[in-house]
């Protein structure tokens, strides 16, 4: 089959017409087709709504946004643990372990998946406490979804992170392309993912897409071992006890983003025609603040808030190796990225949302 025909069949990905002996891309002996980079840029051809599989419930709201656009049955959520009732009520949910290659393959084939959104990972501080498990989930799990995306010609999204940078990276701002050299297993695994995805895109035409998220702040995602989790916990503490103990120094500046902007960026990025993308991995930014600046903004609403700074050596060292700001000019230029929430809007929304959540769940609110 001519290369041009393969490109039309599969948008530059591995042709479904080819035989696929074996399961791993590293063991495939056959030749792969590649998107013809000299072909004129044009919009993607009209097609049916995507069929989306999302691994991990961390960013469940992305699914709800997509379901509003593509229909409730078009987006399948998955995890290894039982979700809350509202997840079942809003569309399909299935059990899926990213380390179980055969089961993942079954889900993709049986559900006619065309987009795979891979969120499953152990975060920075938790990963440092269990490096072996982080390596297994963050790298072996990634290899499984890369294999399956290439084999089934999927559009694959894998988020990266502020943690993909290291102490030798430019910090203010950190550009899309620079020295990275992270010093956590979480960061190392994310750089590995960025490079593997880019490699498979350039060599085999895989439609790999990646955004480097800053610290993401959400009322529905409880702190889960990330270095930026203080920026979520402080709202709960402000409305319960009025006191917060922060594990970072008061002047530790890091890039942050409201969850709504994070979801919207992801959906808009996935919808962008491939010909508009000059990179496979982009920084996205919204704001950058310190713990003390966040506390001061909260005190405009809750003047009684007291913050005790007790830096944790592990998380402080991690934070000190990360960028102060992201340069996201390429995302703004290529696909029109622009945030909605600044610090003032974030604080107002989070206080309202956390207050409502605590009231619904029967917890006291000060």
Automatic annotation (TrEMBL):
Q: What class of enzyme is it?
A: oxidoreductase
Stored InterPro entries: Epimerase_deHydtase, NAD(P)-bd_dom_sf, NAD(P)_epim/dehydratase
Parts of the chain that traverse the membrane: none
Molecular function (Gene Ontology), one example: L-threonine 3-dehydrogenase activity
GO process terms (BP) = L-threonine catabolic process
Question: Might you give the EC number(s) for this enzyme?
Answer: 1.1.1.103
Which reaction(s) are listed as its catalytic activity?
Answer: L-threonine + NAD(+) = (2S)-2-amino-3-oxobutanoate + NADH + H(+)
- Ranges for domain NAD-dependent epimerase/dehydratase come to 80-285
Q: In which pathway does it act?
A: Amino-acid degradation; L-threonine degradation via oxydo-reductase pathway; glycine from L-threonine: step 1/2
What is the role of the protein in this entry? Answer: Catalyzes the NAD(+)-dependent oxidation of L-threonine to 2-amino-3-ketobutyrate, mediating L-threonine catabolism.
Q: Which family does it belong to?
A: Belongs to the NAD(P)-dependent epimerase/dehydratase family.
Instruction: Name the chain's protein.
Output: L-threonine 3-dehydrogenase, mitochondrial
């Amino acid at each position: 089959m001519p290369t041009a025909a393969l490109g039309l069949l599969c948008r530059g990905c591995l042709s479904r017409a080819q035989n696929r002996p074996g399961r791993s891309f590293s063991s495939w002996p056959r030749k792969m087709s590649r998107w013809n980079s000299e072909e004129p840029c044009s919009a993607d051809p009209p097609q049916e709504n995507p069929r989306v599989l999302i691994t991990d419930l961390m960013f469940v709201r992305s699914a709800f946004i997509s379901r509003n656009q593509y229909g409730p049955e078009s987006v399948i959520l998955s995890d290894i643990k039982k979700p809350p009732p509202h997840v079942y009520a809003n569309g399909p949910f299935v059990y899926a372990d990213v380390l179980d290659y055969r089961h993942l393959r079954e889900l993709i084939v049986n559900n006619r998946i065309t987009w795979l959104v891979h969120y499953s990972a152990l975060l920075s501080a938790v990963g440092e406490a269990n490096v072996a498990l982080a390596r297994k989930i963050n790298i072996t799990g990634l290899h499984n979804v890369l294999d399956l995306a290439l084999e089934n010609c999927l559009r694959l999204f894998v988020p990266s992170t502020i943690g993909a940078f290291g102490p030798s990276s430019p910090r203010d701002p950190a550009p899309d392309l620079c020295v990275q050299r992270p010093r956590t297993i979480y960061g190392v695994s994310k750089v590995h993912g960025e490079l593997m995805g880019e490699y498979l895109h350039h060599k085999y035409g895989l439609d790999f897409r990646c955004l480097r998220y800053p610290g993401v702040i959400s009322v529905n995602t409880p702190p889960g071992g990330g270095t930026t989790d203080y920026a979520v916990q402080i709202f709960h503490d402000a409305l319960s006890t009025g006191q917060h103990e922060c594990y970072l120094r008061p002047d530790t500046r890091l890039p942050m983003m409201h969850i709504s902007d994070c979801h919207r960026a992801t959906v808009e990025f996935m919808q962008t025609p491939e010909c508009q993308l000059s990179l496979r991995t982009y920084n996205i930014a919204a704001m950058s603040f310190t713990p003390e600046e966040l506390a001061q903004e909260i005190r405009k609403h809750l003047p009684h808030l007291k913050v005790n700074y007790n830096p944790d050596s592990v998380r402080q060292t991690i934070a000190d190796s990360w960028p102060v700001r992201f340069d996201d000019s390429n995302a703004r230029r290529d696909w029109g990225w622009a945030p909605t929430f600044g610090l003032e809007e974030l604080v107002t929304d989070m206080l309202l949302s956390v207050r409502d959540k605590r009231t619904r769940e029967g917890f006291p609110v000060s």
